[in-house]
Amino acid sequence: MDKLQVGLIGYGYWGPNLARNFSTNKRCVLKRIVEIDSGRRNKAAQSYPGVETAAEAAAILDAPDIDVVVIATPVSSHFPLARQALLQGKHVWLEKPLTRTVAEAQELVELAAARNRVLLVDHTFLFTSAVGKIKSVIASGELGRILYYDSVRVNLGLIQSDVNVVWDLAPHDLAVMDHVLQARAQAISVHGVRHFGRYEELAHVALYFEGNVMAHLHVNWLSPVKVRHTLIGGDKKMLVWNDLENEEKIRIYDKGVDVLPLEDGYQALGQYRIGGMYSPALETREALATEVNYFLDCVERGETPMNDGLAGLRVVQMLEAADRSLAARGALVEL
Questions:
Q1: Between the CA of residue 76 and those of 51, 87, 188, 271, what are the distances in Å?
Q2: Is the pLDDT of residue 140 over 70?
Q3: What residue numbers bound the domain in which 259 lies?
Q4: 261 and 301 share a domain?
Q5: Residues 88-134: pLDDT tens digits?
Q6: Could you give the CA distance from residue 159 to residue 222 in angstroms, rounded to a whole number?
Q7: Are residues 102 and 204 in the same domain?
Q8: Is residue 99 part of a domain?
Q9: 133 and 280, same domain (yes or no)
C-alpha cells in the first residue's frame, strides 16, 4: 500500500509537534507545509528541507497529491479549511476545538460522513497513559458510582487573542470527561472575568451530568504557577491525577463516606472511611505519536475514531453554552 501523503496547515505553537510526528512516522509522508507567516515558514523549511513549503492553503487543499490534511490554525479558520478539505475528498486531522459554533461542527460531521472521510479532532490527552488508566479504572467499577470531577488547569499565559480562557484550556477536561465518564452533560454554568483584553482570562465552570454527577473546572491564564490537578470522587474510592508529576501521576485512595441509616429510618449518619493508597504503573509513551498512529489506522481501515467529529461536536456544544452562560453572568444553560 502506498504511503499516505500528508499536508500540514499551520506551523505556529502546535504545528512543529505535528510536523515532527508525521514526518517521523514511517507509514506516511509529510509532503507539504503551509504557513502564512514568512518567518515560521522559513523555520519549517530549515527543519524539514525535504518537505515543500507554501504560503497559501490551496497548495494543500486543492492538491491531488495530498491524502490527509492536518490543520493547526486558529479556531476561527477551522471550519472553512476543514470543509474545503473534506469537499476535496481528503481525510482531516483538526486541532481542538473542532469549530467556533455548533452549526459549523454539525456541518463538518455530516460532510465527513457523506464523503466517507475520517475526521479526527486532536484531543491529545485522550491518548496519554494517565487518561487511559483513568478510563479503565472507572469502567472497572473500582471507584464505584462517580460523584464528582474537579479540575484545576491554570498557568501564567498564553493569553489568546481570538478566544477566552474557557475555549483555550477547558476543552482538555471537557474531552476527557466526555471520554471517561459514563454520562452526558446536561447543563452548564460559567462565571468569568476579563481584565486586560476582549476575552475572559479566568473562569469557573460548573457542569451537571446524568446520574447526579457534578464537575467543576477552574481555568486561569493569570496564575503565578502552573497547575494541572484533577480529583475524581467515587462512592468507593477516589482518584487524584497530577499531570505535572513525573512519577505517580495517578494515585487511587481507598477513602470515602459510608452512609449509615439511623434507627428511626428518617435520618442517616455519614461515617468516613480512610484506607490505603496506591499508584498504578503507567506506560511511558508520547501521546501525540500514539494518536498519529491511531489516526493512520482509522484512515487505512476506514474506521471511526473515538475522538471523531461527533465527540468534537459535544465539546463545542459545551463551549458554546459556556459562552451563553458567561454573557448572562453565570446563568444555568441547558445542553
A1: 27, 19, 23, 51
A2: yes
A3: 126-286+318-334
A4: no
A5: 999 999 999 999 999 999 999 999 999 999 999 999 999 999 999 99
A6: 9
A7: no
A8: yes
A9: yes
Question: Does the residue 312 lie in any domain?
Answer: no
**pLDDT value for 83:** 98
Per-residue CA distances from 186 to 149, 215, 259 (Å): 15, 11, 27
- 148 and 265 housed in the same domain: yes
Q: Under 8 Å CB-to-CB from 301, ≥6 apart: which residues?
A: none
Instruction: Label each residue of 248-309 as H, E or C.
Output: CCEEEEEEEEEEEECCCCCCEEEEEEEEEEECCCCCCCCHHHHHHHHHHHHHHHCCCCCCEH
| 149 shares a domain with 72 | no
Task: Specify whether 141 is located in the same domain as 236.
Answer: yes
Instruction: Check: CB of residue 203 under 8 Å from CB of residue 189.
Output: no
Q: Which residue has the cell 490505603?
A: 276
- pLDDT tens for 248-287 read 999 999 988 877 776 665 566 677 888 899 999 999 999 9
Q: What is the CATH number of the domain that holds 11?
A: 3.40.50.720
Count of structural domains within the chain? 2
Q: CA-to-CA distance for 122 and 295, rounded, in angstroms?
A: 10
What per-residue confidence (pLDDT) applies to 182?
A: 81
CA torsion sign for 199, 322, 79, 157 is positive
Which three cell numbers mark 77? 479558520
Q: Which of 128, 171, 119 is nearest to 295 (CA)?
A: 119
